[in-house]
Design a protein that fits this description.
Two copies of one chain form a homodimer. Chain A is of the alpha+beta class and about 140 residues long. The first copy, chain A, is built from six helices and six strands. Chain A has two domains: about 80 residues, Orthogonal Bundle (Arc Repressor Mutant, subunit A), CATH 1.10.10; about 60 residues, 2-Layer Sandwich (Dna Ligase, domain 1), CATH 3.30.1490.190. In chain A, a hairpin with a 5-residue loop joins strand 3 and strand 4. The N and C termini of chain A lie far apart (about 45 Å). Strand 6 of chain A pairs antiparallel with strand 6 of chain B, so a sheet runs across the interface. Chain B binds a DNA duplex (30 and 30 nucleotides) through helix 4.
Chain lengths: ~140, ~140
DNA sequence: TTTCATATTTGTAATCATTACAGATTAATA
DNA sequence: TATTAATCTGTAATGATTACAAATATGAAA
């Protein structure tokens, strides 16, 4: 338990979300595991501590969190949604080989775009991502040669 | 048939992809319908002309196209993959209300990033997208008020 | 042209993430 | 405590995608 529980509780009550035990645990997990986890990863970890935990609860909770901008949904892989609580604006890099998602901190001119119009559309979220081969995989390949 | 068939055929042979009738029809459809279609949209349109067309063929073909950079896979919605042959670098805007995907042409400094390293990772694709409420939906809401 | 090997297409069944739903449980209020 | 609403849970349904094997088409060699 790295993240302070009171802090997490406040994050929910501030948004008028009832801080149930399940919700607190899920949010705590997200804060402590900034690895863009899947629903399965979250569920499998928490079911140890809360044996009655249901996967549906994980889905429901993440939906509420997403609607309240507590987490971002990352759909980069195309197979399953990943979840991210890193609130600082950042991009993602998906390695096509090992499928790991890296955070990329390239400063964007968010403030110039967010909540303003682009061709008349109201922008609420900005997502940027890159795909390629990650450093680790490049090095592994080098060794094989 | 807006796009020239010979042109399409060349696009495939240039990449050593056998230009079968099914593949030509799918690529032609993609060129003529830059609406980020789903597999279902492609299949349902083409099955009229090719009654034996199988949805699996559409999947197989799009996979080959994607691997050869003939189409881009757009996973913005999180529910199904959309396909795009617009080769000019551009971003996408997903309307959270009507689910339509718009092309957004904000010039990026692609050339500065593509095929170069970002923190040691080799970047092969750049994707950028925005989510929000589109112009049309904003106007529809205005009328209701 | 015929034969053979290979690539492609097809249809069905399986998989897997996600959602729908309804009953059980918990919390909140009077 | 009784009542009501919110939340949680487990199962079943959905829907996109993939696996797979049989059918078909293609292309080369004889």
């Amino acid at each position: 338990m790295i993240t302070n529980m009171k802090h997490i509780k406040k994050e929910l009550t501030d948004k008028n979300i009832k801080p149930t035990y399940q919700r607190l645990c899920i949010l705590e997990y997200l804060h402590d595991n900034l690895v863009h986890p899947t629903v399965d990863m979250i569920y499998n970890k928490l079911v140890d501590r809360i044996p009655t935990m249901s996967k549906t609860t994980v889905y429901n909770t993440l939906k509420i969190f997403s609607e309240n901008n507590i987490v971002n949904e990352i759909t980069i892989t195309g197979t399953e949604t990943r979840y991210d609580t890193n609130c600082k604006s950042h991009q993602h890099f998906l390695c096509k080989k090992c499928k790991k998602i890296y955070d990329i901190n390239i400063t964007y001119q968010d403030s110039e775009i967010i909540n303003k119009d682009i061709f008349g559309h109201k922008v609420q979220e900005i997502h940027g991502y890159f795909k390629g081969i990650c450093k680790q995989c490049l090095e592994n390949d080098k060794i094989k040669d």
